[in-house]
Task: structure prediction
Amino acid sequence: MYNRRKFLLSSLAASIGISLPLAGKPIAGSPRIRAGSRPAIISTWNHGLAANAAAWEQLAAGRSVLDAVETGVRVSEADPDVTSVGFGGLPDSSGEVTLDACIMNSAGDAGAVACLKNILHPISVARLVMEETPHVMLVGEGALEFAMRNGFQKANLLTPDARKVWEKWKKTQEAGKPVGSGHDTIGMVALDAGGDLAGACTTSGLSFKLPGRVGDSPIIGAGLYVDNEVGGAAATGVGELVMKTLGSFLVVEMMRTGISPEEACRMALERIAEKIPLKSDMQVGFIAISKAGETAGYGLRKSFEYAVIKEGRNQLLTASALL
Ligand code: SD4
Result:
């Protein structure tokens, strides 16, 4: 997957004649991107670089902004090195990989799947729920049956490496005390040249979660929210914190008042910090993009990185931290 990532980045660079930062290397001291421009794509963590590159190629080829976000996050879903998304994702406490995903288009339509097993691209099932059913969310067995009826194939998503990590974790756990950890969900929001927005969010959720646990990522308004008149936002981190405050919706509603994406993300994190007792290892990160193409990311704590591509430049940025 490293090669595919490298290929996507270098082919993008070649097509626009610029050099790109290497995946995984944040740009030290790079200025926050405040100026708005269209098109623009923002996504969470360093695997967002490869996802951005794939999404950008879609826009460059004249595909829709919805195609762009779906294609973008599918890169992370298929990458076994991304241990919190799709194939290679760490399992729940029983050793099962269960996936959560959602998608929104510029018309405000939404689709989601939760606790879906054995499907490589949950984001594409979420899109199908949005486009082909009167519903917003399908879960568990029903979501799997729906996917299979629509031509998706079953796949084993637990890689040997992820199994080893789970086996090690299992040995160290006291019975009955599963703990969640790990947060590298991919959330992406894109704005096309015409000013239309779409977003996608997909994850295997917190590693070693209780079986049946669903996080923020597939919940419209929590893990992702897009309003074509205002902007879009996505979340990563401990989903329970984001769900209790409907974080992405809050970010978009803050932007509706006219404040910048950066201020909006910070205010949503302040809400979490005010309302919820936090443990020292709990992280949440928000990304946001305004209708004008201003972008920002903000973390509860240091270490949150996000990727932005605009004017053909794909950058990994280190977010400011609230605490
Ligand atoms: C969740 N937010 O299931 C997800 C976890 C994650 O980056 O990996 N976030 O709570």
In short: The domain at 35-321 is CATH 3.60.20.30 (Glutamine Phosphoribosylpyrophosphate, subunit 1, domain 1). Residues 84, 183-185, 203, 205-206, 215-217, 236-239 surround N-hydroxy-L-asparagine (CB under 6 Å). DSSP finds nine helices and 13 strands in the chain.
